[in-house]
């Protein structure tokens, strides 16, 4: 399967770097992350085209066969224009349709208002990564999350730290008065396309609107171009969330759209 979506191409790059198992079939890819089964977008099926009449049953069966016992359902749709396909078929599976914007840049514009008194540097050591765990929970309003969700976050961060340790990228933090206020990662695989993909730009709710994220994304971009040899920076954003304006102000431009379809597990299993 020749994947055309830049969003999914860089998703698959990250999955491969992390050691995921990717099985190629004639019309889809099955992506497995055995070490973190609660990570939906590490355990999903990428289909080769938008849903057509009759596809609901077909793709539900494929997912069940590839992921027996999975409580969630996650399907990516390859393409660049945001077309998920036949609305009737999507409704039959009770799917949530998420269409994100994929933005790219070759060079970034420095932020107009760099944060005063902040230190931006790569995370280093257990204490920094422990702060990153708490920041992720706070950024998503999950300080009182279940044990299952906390385990998922811990496993995801352990994966991201391992990618950094292996030299595939770095995770930078913005420290304000010694406290981690924002963080994000950037990774590349060194292939001929020289793509660098951002991951998880997160700011603590108490420190938002102070320019931390803009400074962080800019610094990471410069680092990636210099240290990883990245030629094209890639970031994926919710088109209805304010962060996309921040990325555009730094010089990112809308390039394509990425379609993800999912059905959450029953509440007791989420």
TrEMBL record:
- Which Pfam family is an annotated match for this chain, by its short name? Acetyltransf_1
Q: Which CDD domains match?
A: NAT_SF
InterPro entries attached to this UniProt entry: Acyl_CoA_acyltransferase, GNAT_dom
- UniProt keyword list: Transferase
Where do the N-acetyltransferase domain residues begin and end?
118-270
GO MF, any single term: acyltransferase activity, transferring groups other than amino-acyl groups
Name of the protein this chain belongs to: GCN5-related N-acetyltransferase
Q: What is the lineage of its organism?
A: Bacteria, Bacillati, Actinomycetota, Actinomycetes, Frankiales
């Amino acid at each position: 399967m020749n994947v055309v979506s830049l969003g999914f191409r860089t998703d698959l790059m990250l999955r491969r770097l992390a050691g995921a198992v990717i099985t190629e079939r004639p019309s889809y890819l099955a992506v497995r992350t055995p070490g973190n089964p609660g990570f939906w977008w590490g355990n999903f099926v990428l289909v080769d085209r938008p849903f057509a009449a009759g596809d609901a049953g077909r793709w539900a069966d494929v997912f069940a066969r590839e992921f027996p016992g999975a409580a969630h359902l996650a399907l990516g749709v390859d393409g660049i224009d945001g077309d998920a396909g036949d609305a009737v078929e999507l409704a039959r599976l009770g799917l949530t349709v998420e269409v994100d914007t994929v933005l790219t840049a070759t060079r970034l514009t420095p932020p107009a208002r760099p944060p005063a008194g902040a230190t931006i540097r790569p995370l280093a050591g257990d204490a920094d990564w422990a702060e990153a765990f708490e920041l992720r929970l706070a950024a998503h309003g999950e300080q009182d999350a279940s044990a299952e969700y906390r385990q998922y976050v811990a496993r995801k961060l352990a994966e991201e730290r391992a990618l950094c340790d292996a030299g595939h990228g770095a995770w930078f933090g913005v420290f304000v008065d010694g406290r981690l206020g924002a963080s994000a990662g950037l990774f590349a695989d060194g292939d001929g396309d020289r793509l660098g993909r951002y991951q998880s730009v997160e700011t603590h709710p108490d420190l938002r609107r102070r320019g931390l994220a803009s400074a962080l994304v800019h610094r990471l971009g410069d680092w990636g171009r210099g240290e990883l040899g990245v030629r094209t920076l890639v970031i994926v954003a919710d088109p209805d969330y304010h962060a996309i304006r921040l990325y555009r102000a730094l010089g990112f431009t809308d390039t394509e759209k990425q379609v993800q379809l999912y059905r959450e597990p029953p509440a007791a299993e989420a």
